[in-house]
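Model it.
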Amino acid sequence: MKYPVLLPNFTKLDNFLSSELSKWIEKKVLSRPYKKKPLSRYKQILNSLKIVKPKEIILVGGTNGKGSLSELITKLAVKSNISIGTFTSPHILNFNERIRVNENEISDKKFLESLKKILSMDEDKSLNFYQIISLAALNYFNSLNLDLWVLEIGMGGRLDPMNFLESDISVITKVALDHQEHLGNSIEEIAEEKAGIIKKQKPIIYGSIKIPNAIKNKSNKLKSKLISPGIDKLSKRDFNEIKSLSKKNIISSEVIYCFYKLCDLSKFDLKKNLNLKFLNDFNLFGRLTHFDNILIDSAHNEDAILFLQNYIDKNFKNVKNLNIYFCCSKDKDPFTLLKPFEGKVDRIYLPENLHDRLMSSKEIITKTAKINLDFVSISSLKEVYDSILESKKDSLNLVMGSFYFSAEFLKYIQNKRNLSISLSNLERAIS
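Modeled.
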């Protein structure tokens, strides 16, 4: 099989800016269909890196909430003067967001140095892009003598590149239906894949009350302590805090529970800086990002959409008109994503040609024909932006359905308003 070109000639990239590199990656790599590849070469290169295990490694898996949980741990670790390397995906504005140390994105120079090293070791060109990025992140973290690594698992778990490290704590926030074409068509099939991150005799935290049998069975087999609200007796204080926060905050109760338990289990004293103010002040760029009369969220599966809908119902009670600007990936079911908004939305605007992984407006309309919705097809991000500007001040304009769409819209706003938008600079973006 001919090996696909994954990366440009790095001798010509030394002076590239993050944005330029991101554009190249999005065009040449992220648009490619997912392909399963053998892991033997990956494991060989991982061993060659001679990884020195930090004091603690936390693997974060699950269908939804991985990014929120990883960010919560990262912020609390930094607040507690614990050095931390954080690996997450996907990114919003530039690829460097995926690899951070103490909340700071990897520099272009270090990013390219690490990628060059991995590519030079991949002589038979057998690694896929996600494996290359994972190894580059581990190589970078390994050079810095950090206390803690928080590694977010991709869509599965069992075969994820980060799962070949021996973690101290594994977390599965929740299992819901998503990526069925790769993981299976039932909760149990998906849970089987996600349970792959459970380690022998190491604790596993599961954030939901109803625990899939696959997770129970795997934890029993490996003699790993299973911690879940389904079997755990919470203190009255913890229960009330979780219940209160999940009602008004952007964090789900599953994520808050996992976070509390991680703070209990960690080798580090994280709880000294954990309080209600810390949780109430938390925000995650690109998820429930609100400014003016715009709400941007990357919800792209049924479970996340229901959480989003509940958030809107609780926090925007005075909104008179709801307009949705919607895109979804070609592998998603727009009927499932839009059905909860039937009877609650005035219009749904469908932008075209934003990314080749996104479904066409024609296909979205066809697949949602049985829902009573008013669709308007528009041709560009400019039309999205202009339409929002023309909307009434007491309306809410929801941009949703895809990370790609959220990212492109945020980039457009950044250019239009001449703002410097980043994970660490949210205040300027929403002013």
